[in-house]
Amino acid sequence: MKFIATxxxxxxxxxxxxxxxxxRKILQAENVHKRVTAEFVVKAFPEGRTWGVFTGxxxxxxxxxxxxxxxxxxxxxxxxxxxxxxxxIEGDYxxxxxxxxxxxxxxxxxxxxxxxxxxxxxxxxxxxxxxxGARRMHPALAPxxxxxxxxxxxxxxxxxxxxxxxxxxxxGTIPHALVLILGDVxxxxxxxxRVIEPDVARVALVDTFGDEKFEALRAAEALGEAxxxxxxxxxGSRRGDFLQILKEVRWELDLRGHKHVKLFVSGGIDENKxxxxxxxxxxxxxxxxxxxxxxxxxxxxxxAIEGEPIAKRGKPSGRKEVWRCPECxxxxxxxYGEPAPDRCSCGGTFEALLKPVMKNxxxxxxxxxxxxIREWVLKQLKWVSL
Length: 386
Fold this sequence. Notes:
Elements: H1 7-11, H2 18-29, E1 35-42, E2 52-53, H3 57-64, E3 70-73, E4 79-80, E5 87-92, H4 93-96, H5 100-124, E6 128-131, H6 142-152, E7 156-157, H7 160-166, H8 176-182, H9 185-195, E8 202-205, H10 212-223, E9 227-232, H11 236-239, H12 242-255, E10 262-266, H13 271-277, E11 283-286, H14 288-291, E12 298-305, E13 308-309, E14 320-324, E15 331-335, E16 351-352, E17 355-359, E18 362-363, H15 370-380
Parallel strand pairs: 6-7, 6-11, 8-9, 9-10, 10-11
Antiparallel strand pairs: 1-5, 1-12, 2-4, 3-5, 3-17, 12-13, 14-15, 14-16, 17-18
Helix pairs in contact: 3-5, 5-6, 5-13, 6-7, 6-15, 8-9, 9-10, 10-12
């Protein structure tokens, strides 16, 4: 594929903005070598949000590995707020400045996807969420999107390679194509039941040819106890009062002895739709709103040169530390080197969030597996709201 940057292209600095390359040439020609401190900060979140999930660190560190730089960072999956530094790089600007574009790209998109997934998780509570959005983005990005959707809180992903990399079984149901080709929801559901491995949940797609209520009942009567759920992916032009449609499906299934059949909804789902439908829905397939999530607008700010505080207008100079109370999630940003704040009002003791992860280009901490990052995200969600 012609318009795809390879890993070698990125490491060679070919995906940088040209002004960084020109800066490198000028500093080299002038023989200027200065050690700088650079912080990665989000000044404001999209759509008026007040928190985000920090991800993309592992990719950023892989790019920086081998360079004579030191890096401190929040643990991947940490929930953070505006103006809190999430990562700090120290080193000769000539050694890492050309990678600013790539590092920001890693952090901005990954954190945006993880944040949207986490918001959907907050909205859904303990209901199942599957990531269905890979088809909305370039396929080369599918594993990146699904990885960050998973650490942000979804339960499963649909893309085969993504699931393999995460150590999960892929999550999916039946496409409209199968119902259309076989000509009937019952025939499609029965064929799925005959052919697909028994450990895969049987979910009937009930919006292809007829009314969702009647297709759901036909599928439930055909499979009986083997049917796990019915999925409604009803087009927006036909939804009308979608919550009322779902309530009607639920009523009819329950009335006829199919209380075990869950309701799975997909198509145009985000955290706001989830809140509207939670009354009756058991599981969600969330696509575009996660895969096309607004990026978190990180900036790399130089805040010190040769140890002396300095920054552009509108940016506070000097390196900083972020302190957080592990009991309530309250955070405080202070100049680096100052003592920790006194005890939090809740009685908790503040802990530093920016931890050493790289020394002179060598990793000094192991990166956790996605499952562990996800568990860390879920633990912190008790501190935030939509």
